[in-house]
Design a protein that fits this description.
Helices cover 45% and strands 16% of the residues. By secondary structure, the chain is of the alpha/beta class. It has two domains: 9-120 and 228-331, Periplasmic binding protein-like II (D-Maltodextrin-Binding Protein, domain 2, 3-Layer(aba) Sandwich); 123-224, Periplasmic binding protein-like II (D-Maltodextrin-Binding Protein, domain 2, 3-Layer(aba) Sandwich).
């Protein structure tokens, strides 16, 4: 009888252990969903997708069967809605739409930054010969902006307006914004229709400037007083806590992609052009990536400038004390701001 009890106990322990492993395996999602926008600022994510780095790191984490789904969206607000609905795990875009989600989810899923993607300037271009500065815009002008109202381009334009017209007039140019994705915004401005200007990003801003009659009105670096993060990736504490291996695989893949780009920028330029069918040559993109103003980096730069502005105009209820309050611990050792 004692022997039978020992066998039964051993069987029970084995069943519990097996069940526990199964439960642990099921605790991680079976598909990781990632979204990004358009442009070379998303290069690390393009490398991750093309090189299947996420799959590589998932396999190393013991999650070889986990699928990876990539998608593109023209605005951070769309991604934020998907994150809240649990239909997206990692979103990539500008800092302002992330801050809106951070503010909105502090008491539930708790959105936080994974890392920065890149620091690079974004340009406001125009084909209107009468517009030399933003003070020259009139009600007849229309400015194409991706994610008009909450995107990094929208908020940067508001910050520029506050500097030019006074803090109380930060929204002065918002009535001129037309919500169009970067590719559609470029096409609209070039068509000669009602869209006279475009606040866009690389490579679209450089393609526009090669057209006679198109000039740069403003660079984001003018507004921010130097280099700042253009794009970043965010997720939620809810996802990270429930899926530590999947989250770790993403961060590891992102770091590997960033290192891969910086090790050989010509190779990175070639991959981007092949993946996106971009109109630039490899030499042009390589030169761009080697520009001192450009850096592909995980380090967040000047995130608190956006935080302070958005909180100051009332679009954020909560205010972070430090950039580290906005990001998960994996990047806290970096010299962020």
């Amino acid at each position: 009888m004692l022997k039978i009890k020992r066998i039964a106990a051993a069987f029970t322990c084995g069943l519990v252990a097996t069940f526990g492993v199964a439960q642990s395996a099921r605790a991680e999602v079976d598909e990781v969903k990632i979204a990004m926008g358009f442009g070379i600022g998303y290069l690390p994510l393009v490398v991750m997708e093309q090189q299947k780095l996420m799959e590589k790191h998932l396999q190393s984490a013991g999650l070889a069967d986990t699928k990876v789904r990539w998608s593109q969206a023209g605005a951070g607000a769309v991604m934020n809605d998907a994150i809240i609905a649990g239909q997206l795990h990692f979103a990539a875009g500008g800092i302002p739409p992330f801050l809106i989600l951070w503010d909105k989810t502090k008491s539930n899923v708790q959105a936080k930054g994974v890392a920065a993607l890149s620091s690079m300037p974004i340009f406001l271009n125009t084909r209107n010969p009468n517009v030399k500065t933003i003070k020259d815009f009139t009600e007849k002008d229309r400015i194409a902006v991706a994610g008009a109202g909450s995107s990094v381009h929208s908020i940067t334009l508001q910050m520029a307006a506050a500097q030019a017209f006074g803090a109380q007039n930060y929204n002065k140019l918002s009535t001129l914004m037309v919500n169009l994705s970067h590719p559609d915004g470029m096409a609209a401005m070039m068509s000669g229709g009602e869209i006279t200007s475009h606040f866009t990003s690389p490579p679209f801003q450089y393609q526009e400037l090669r057209t006679p009659g198109v000039r740069r009105v403003l660079s984001s670096y003018d507004v921010m007083g130097g280099r700042n993060s253009f794009l970043m990736v965010w997720s939620t504490a809810k996802f990270r806590d429930a899926n530590p291996k999947s989250y770790g695989a993403f961060f590891g893949a992102m770091k590997e992609a960033t290192d891969w780009i910086n090790a050989d920028k010509q190779r990175a330029a070639d991959l981007y052009i092949r993946a996106t069918k971009s109109k630039e040559s490899v030499d042009e993109l390589e030169k761009f990536l080697k520009d001192p103003e450009i850096e592909v980096t995980l380090t967040p730069e000047k995130t608190m400038m956006f935080m302070n502005f958005q909180h100051g105009v009332g679009s954020l209820k909560n205010k972070a004390a430090s950039w580290k309050d906005l990001f998960f611990p994996e990047v806290h050792h970096l010299p962020g701001s």
